[in-house]
Amino acid sequence: MGVIGRPHGxxxxxxxxxxxxxPDALAEYTLTDRNGRAFTLAWVHDNVAQLAEVTPQGPRxxxxxxxxxxxxxxxxxxxxxxxxxxxxxxxxxADLIGLQAVSSTGETLGKIAAVHEYGAGPSLEIQPGALIxxxxxxxxxxxxxxxxxxxxxxxxxxxxxxxx
Length: 164
Hints:
Elements (H helix, E strand, L loop, with lengths): L1 E6 L6 E5 L12 E2 L5 E8 L2 E8 L2 E4 L3 H6 L4 E4 L14 H4 L3 E3 L5 E10 L4 E6 L3 E4 L7 E3 L4 E3 L13
Parallel strand pairs: 8-13
Antiparallel strand pairs: 1-2, 1-7, 2-5, 3-4, 3-7, 4-5, 5-6, 8-9, 9-10, 10-11, 12-13
């Protein structure tokens, strides 16, 4: 759902990079890191948030820059059961990873190893071979989660042709 970034100021605020369509939605969930440590966040302004660790005694705000620095690059996750069902033709990136990628003729290209989002739209990394394709209707005309596969038509400009 997001990654905690550098501290912002001296009062424990942190930058948070979100992977959600609506960054504000991150504040609606209890988030956990890979170790199961739970957090809530409240947005202060432009990608800057106040985190609170969820403890048995209740939320404990992180108000110290040194503690905030220790959280830099911490990945944040939400329980799948807390998320809304995706709309038709919408997918959670986690659901795409591991799907078989096949060409329009049925040839196996590999499996989706990662979904990258660099700001210009998501792209799929297909292994082996590190084929990167934009996650668009033109390049990925079909996603069948039930069958565990996607159909991929790599754009001509990224298909390497041997030189004569």
